[in-house]
Amino acid sequence: MKIAIDARLTAYREGGIAEYMRRLIEHIPELWAIQHRRKPRTDRDRQYYAFTPPHHRLERIALGVELLPLRLDLLHAADFIPPLFGAKHFVITVHDLNFLHYPQFQTPDSLRYYAGQIKAATEQAAQIMADSEATKIDLCNMLGVPAEKITVHMLGVDPMYHPLPADQVQPVLDRLKLPRGYILFVGTFEPRKNLPGLLTAYRHLRDELPDAPPLVIVGRRGWLYEDIFRKVSELGLDAQVRWLEDAAFADMPALYNGAAVLTLPSHYEGFGFPPLEAMACGVPTVVSDRGSLPEVVADTGLLIDPDDSAALTAALRRALTDSAFRDRSSAAGLQRSSQFTWQHTAQIAREVYHKVLA
Q: Which of 93, 99, 105, 195 is such that its CA lies 20 to 30 A from the CA of 41?
């Protein structure tokens, strides 16, 4: 049987869905990887380089035409939307339905690509994988997908994320001119991440605790990010907020280890790698109580309503000042994060492939 995964997105992005694709390819060696031609070629045998870029308006036809000569038995569309043809069977992964929950947070192109095609994609797929029970429930309630057509497979955490000794953390912090014990946010700068809400809560925190540590925001610019930068100046936080855009991947374990707390007060997350990576480093978390985040963090951290600025301020204050909570959260996070492995994610994906082909 010839099974392939559409991994063209890895030529354009590093984390998130692209990381999911890379990990499945790594742990399922029998997979053919459909890469984009802009990606450097590797010595991996089972690779095919396509011309069609991801998210192209004609990709459902163009990619299908390119795949026909491969005579695929199954194609896994790991970025939601499969081609119209090009394989005998299709499996898709739906990471979240944020674009249906919050269309106002999307660009017109994103809405056309995801919201405009997701219903047809779920109907075409023989089976659907979801990153969380929350996304499975959304698929059933919002798109009418039968529950038996959906398999939940939580994602994994890279072994590079673990507690580090001070002599491995401090050189990175010194190079980036960061003090130890900051509040950390990791993610794309876009509306659904609720950075304006975090900045407002942080302003209140500094009013209550003038010696509160700086807020370090690590990530890259997404869409509709301009208001976020303006908000910092409006709140008088230019000196207290540090932006690390496109931080080196190799620096991330040290950046987590150097933090006092990781916060992700998103309006919605399909999974949420940053809290899991922070937990694996023994760092307490303060996250939203929406989407998949409660499934990832469970009772190891603090869950807050992302629309409640006062609750977020109180949670950050507790995470910084309550030593008993910090010790408990650190230990519980380390234990829980050990359950999230890419081997397990890949094994469930392989079982879904075999179920479809059987």
A: 93
- 166-337: CATH architecture: 3-Layer(aba) Sandwich (3.40)
Phi, psi of 165 (to 5 degrees): -70, 160
Q: What are 303's strand-pairing partners?
A: 287
pLDDT number for residue 224: 63
Question: Taking CA 239 as the corner, what is the angle to CA 236 and CA 241, rounded to the nearest 5 degrees?
Answer: 90
Lowest mean pLDDT among 59-63, 210-214, 232-236, 322-326: 232-236
Between CA 74 and CA 60 the distance in angstroms is: 16
Residue 268: name the closest of 120, 128, 138 by CA.
Answer: 138
3-state DSSP assignment of residue 147:
helix
* b/e burial code for range 342-354 (CB count within 10 A of at least 16 → b): beebbeebbebbe
For residue range 48-57, what is the model confidence (pLDDT) as tens digits? 999 999 999 9
Rounded to whole angstroms, the Cα distance separating 262 from 298 reads 15
The CATH number corresponding to 3-156+341-357 among 3.40.50.2000, 3.40.720.10, 3.40.50.1000, 3.40.1000.70 equals: 3.40.50.2000
Q: Can you give the pTM of this predicted structure?
A: 0.91
Judge contact between 271 and 155, C-beta under 8 A: yes
Alpha carbons 303 and 290: distance in angstroms, whole number: 9
Backbone angles phi, psi at 191, to 5 degrees: -60, -40
Q: Tell me, what's the pLDDT at 356?
A: 98
The Cα–Cα gap between 308 and 31 comes to 45
- Between CA 273 and CA 46 the distance in angstroms is 28
Strands laid side by side in the 87-94 sheet = 47-50, 32-36, 3-6, 72-77, 87-94, 127-130, 150-152
Distance of CA 99 to the CA centre of its chain: 15
The better pLDDT of the pair 198, 116 is held by: 198
**Which helix (H) or strand (E) segment is 88 a member of?**
strand 87-94
